[in-house]
Amino acid sequence: MPIDAAKALAAEPRSGEIRWERRDVQLYHLGIGAGRPATDPDELRYTLETRLHVLPSFATVAGAGSPGVISGLSMPGIDVDLAKVLHGGQSLTLHRPIPAAGTATATGRIAAVYDKGKAAVLVMRTEVADADGPLWTNDAQIFVRGEGGWGGDRGPSTRLEPPTGEPDRTVERPVREDQALLYRLSGDYNPLHADPEFAKLAGFDRPILHGLCTYGITLKAVVDTVLGGDVSRVRSYGTRFAGVVYPGETLRIRMWQGDSQVRVAVSAVEREDAPVLADTIVEHS
Prior knowledge:
This protein is α+β, with helices and mostly antiparallel strands. Helix content is 19%, strand content 34%. It has helices spanning 5-10, 22-31, 41-47, 68-72, 179-183, 196-201, 211-225, and strands at 14-20, 85-94, 102-115, 119-130, 133-145, 169-174, 234-241, 250-257, 261-268, 274-284. It has a ten-stranded antiparallel beta sheet. The protein is globular. The protein starts with a helix and ends with a strand. The model has no long low-confidence stretch (mean pLDDT 94).
């Protein structure tokens, strides 16, 4: 079996130094669609170095995403075909606002391995801290098709009851044709998002958008629409990737506001509101 759960869980965490500069933050923001309109004062907070604040989802690519999903798939006990890998979900906990430039230590490990029958699920945890203490914790849930069925722990169900009633806010965000090509410059060079031939091998008609790009687009919409543009109010953000997005499509982002959280559902407009992100919650102050 390509996945040895016991070996993966027992493996020593991998730690390394990560660095990021303002240009990395700016490139990430452009990769999730910031800067439209280019002279909008609200957009300049994401694109102009003298006003720059950091959208918390930048944590998923800081230090070029190191150690990241790809390096996690090379951990002891893990030997899988990249074409069978799908990003199933992502959760992020912020311990304090992310600085616009910094140096930190990222420690990555396999936190859990679940047997879903037709697939294995790996939970890859990355904890990041700088000289002042913890900054963020990232959990990536990775599905590996065809690698389940060994009788292991199925793990907890992450499915939530859908929000009830009409959403409080609904916005639409167009995805540029070249969005994946721009986003991948922040560190995720998986050919699934750029190479048509590789995409076909993985079962898609054409390259798909990175799930974490949709993740960032969605958080920006919540911050801009519900949180008054204040990135420091975000405490945590989690989602389940329920479907793919193709560059050139339009995202419909529905939001239900609570006292300290926003429930979100994201769909693809051109495909009859096909689900894209589900079980999505932004917790905030």
